[in-house]
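Z., the sequence and structure:
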Amino acid sequence: MSLPTFAQSARRNLLAPVLIAFLLLGIVLALVIRATPHRTADLTITRTAIFPTHTVFKSDSTLVGHDQTQDDLYVLTTLRIDDRLHLPLFIKDLTGTLTTADGQVFTTSATENQDFANVYASFPGLKPLASEPLLRETTIAPGQSAQGMVLLHFPVTKAAWDHRRTATLNVDLYHQGLQTVRIGRASEASPNTPQPPEASDPGESAN
């Protein structure tokens, strides 16, 4: 007497729906992955200009060589942000980090909107190099972009900047965290672009 075969038939009948379900799940996952951007945003430095300053603080001493000096460097870098998400991006903060040839690390906060007038008044030669700034709290719509100048101040000489290891612009986004882009040498103004002379104020501070 042969054994019943209905159990095998039931197994065979369930196999096809299970395979179809897995196939449909794979298709859905593939579509989701394809529709989801791999990056939050694309950050691009389009142009960079530098403005070195040299300030001399006069001393009350009559001895030669007792005057104090200070070197500062202003970096005007233009940043473009392309929103790759299906959600808007909100800029929380903008900072810059410079690592010098000897390993010193300087991190500075980008100039605030209310401080531009004072900076331009102290260093008039900066203004011709400046453009419309990219500000904190800027909103970038999905699929859109924003571009503007970010002004950074580092307490270093032009030589320290020229021989730097790295320089980066750091963009802190609400909800998406910190994004970083390198300020490359290729973005700097061409050698034919006039650079401002080092400023010297013998009587008062640069600030």
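Confidence is low (pLDDT under 50) at residues 32-38, 191-207. The longest helix spans residues 6-35.

Let me know what you think.
H.
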